[in-house]
Amino acid sequence: MNRSFVAANARELTRMRAVVSRLSDRELGSMINEYWSGAGVLGHIAFWDGRALYLARKLERGESFTASEDEPGDVDWINDSSRPLIHAIPPRALAELAVSIAEATDELVASLPDEVLAGLDETSPLNPVRANHRGEHLDEIEAAVRPRI
Known about the structure:
This protein is mainly alpha-helical. Helix content is 67%, strand content 0%. The protein starts with a helix and ends with a helix. The model has no long low-confidence stretch (mean pLDDT 95).
C-alpha cells in the first residue's frame, strides 16, 4: 500500500499552520479574489477536509459509503452555498478551525488500515490525499498576500 499521501498531507498541514501563524487578522480577513477572503479560503479547505473526516470515520466504523455520499461532478453550488456561512466566522477563529480539522482529518486518514485504503479508488467519495486541495488554495492565499507584505 502506497502511503505517500501521509507525508504529502503532513507537508501541506505544516504549510497551513505557517500561513495561519504568519498572517495578521487583517490579512486573513482581506479578500484574495472577488469571492473569498484568506480566512474564507481556509474555511473552504476546512469544509472539504471535514467531509473527508466524516467519510474516514465511516470507514473506521466499518461502514460502507452510500450513493448519496458521492461527490457531484460540479461542486460550485456547494462552495457558493457555503461561502456566506464560512465568511460569518471571525477570520482568526476560522483559520484556527481549519488547522484543527486538517489535523484531525490527517490523523484519522493515516490511521486507516492498508486493506481499507486499498479499497479506495478514483470513484471513492474519500480521497485520502488532502495535500493537493490544500496546496492549491494555500498557493492562492500566499500569492494574494505576498504583494501586501
